[in-house]
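Researcher: We plan to redesign the surface later, but first we want a full-length starting point. Tokens attached.
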């Protein structure tokens, strides 16, 4: 048996499993997904271990909204002895792609977090042993595959790999960001993470550069505007609430107490639209598509609040709706959606044409 292990936020296992099931079915990879709610990961057991290689080349992490990291595991250990876990792994029998990085990881659940100190300490001797067995390059090399040893408790671990072009570069698949002390709200981290993780370097430099213009719908108190101002962009902040005084004093922000669904950019267009209004996701998606189709902005970054259940199905509906809206206008859409680390019951999307 071989497994595909998908890391996700605790509580979102059913959503990650439903996406993984659909991705595997579409690629004729047969098996079933298993999870316990709240455990922070899903394991898809492949009936035919030989199909693991095909899976690793064809399932795309960036197409899965609720999955933070995907690892392809030929090995699953369930009774590792506390005294000699490395010996019990039998590294000389491993067949894995030559790797440049080792990650010893754990689920991001309450139980899983208790393993973090152990995982950190275990990394050093395991790395040495893996180098001795020629499983890892002598020097760390992120251009090669990563070996993941994913402990689900003190004696059980999946061992597998990810390829750098189809993996999150961060431990546990989590981009950790420091909250800037002068930011007006914690949701500032959502936009920062979205800009850093959903856009390529080139896209970031083109759209989020100094001097560019933006509209922020649902801007108050200003956490998202803060990220734009930090990048020296000019911002039209739209909301009925009160904006952070320090942001207004930068001279880069103009404030409009208007309805975000009716607002149009002051000079007809801007480079970037961001939107964090708490509203029905289909309404927000329709508005975002309209802005991009009408070319009122080049790119839209927005949050979609999720229903409590069947979240993956709700996202599928939104995707279909957006694609349809663009196709009716004779245009094609590039849409990326991810459940970011700093998102809770919401996902973040990037849309451009
Ligand atoms: C989650 S908060 C935004 C937080 C903000 N992004 C930040 O980082 O500080 C949602 C905001 O959307 C605003 N809002 C909701 N519906 C709106 C609408 N139709 N037009 C304008 N603002 C709206 C609310 O007043 C609220 O301030």
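Model: Full-length starting sequence:
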């Amino acid at each position: 048996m071989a497994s595909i292990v998908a890391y996700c936020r605790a509580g979102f296992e059913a959503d990650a499993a439903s996406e993984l099931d659909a991705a595997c079915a579409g690629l004729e990879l047969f098996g079933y997904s298993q999870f316990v709610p709240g455990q922070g990961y899903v394991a898809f057991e492949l009936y035919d271990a030989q199909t693991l290689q095909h899976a690793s080349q064809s399932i795309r992490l960036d197409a899965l909204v609720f999955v933070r990291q995907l690892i392809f595991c030929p090995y699953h250990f369930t009774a590792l002895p506390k005294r000699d876990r490395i010996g019990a792994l039998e590294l000389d029998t491993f067949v894995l792609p030559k790797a440049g990085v080792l990650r010893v990881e754990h689920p991001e659940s309450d139980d899983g977090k208790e393993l973090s100190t152990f995982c950190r300490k275990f990394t050093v001797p395991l790395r040495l042993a893996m180098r001795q067995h020629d499983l890892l390059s002598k020097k760390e090399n992120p251009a090669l595959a990563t070996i993941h040893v994913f402990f689900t408790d003190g004696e059980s671990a999946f061992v597998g790999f990810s390829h750098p072009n189809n993996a999150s570069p961060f431990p546990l698949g989590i981009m950790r960001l420091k909250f800037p002390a002068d930011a007006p709200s914690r949701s500032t981290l959502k936009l920062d993470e979205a800009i850093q993780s959903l856009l390529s370097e080139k896209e970031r430099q083109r759209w989020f550069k100094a001097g560019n213009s933006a509209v922020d719908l649902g801007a108050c108190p200003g956490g998202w505007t803060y990220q734009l101002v930090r990048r020296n962009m000019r911002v039209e902040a739209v909301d009925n609430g009160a904006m952070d005084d320090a942001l207004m004093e930068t001279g880069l922000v103009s404030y409009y107490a208007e309805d975000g669904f009716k607002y149009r950019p002051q000079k007809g267009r801007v480079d970037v639209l961001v939107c964090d209004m708490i509203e029905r996701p289909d309404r927000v998606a329709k508005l975002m598509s309209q802005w991009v189709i009408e070319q009122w902005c080049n790119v839209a970054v927005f949050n979609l609040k999720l229903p409590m259940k069947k979240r993956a199905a709700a996202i599928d509906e939104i995707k279909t709706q957006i694609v349809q809206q663009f196709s009716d206008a004779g245009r094609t859409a590039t849409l990326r959606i991810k459940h970011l680390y700093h998102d809770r019951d919401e996902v973040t999307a990037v849309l451009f044409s």
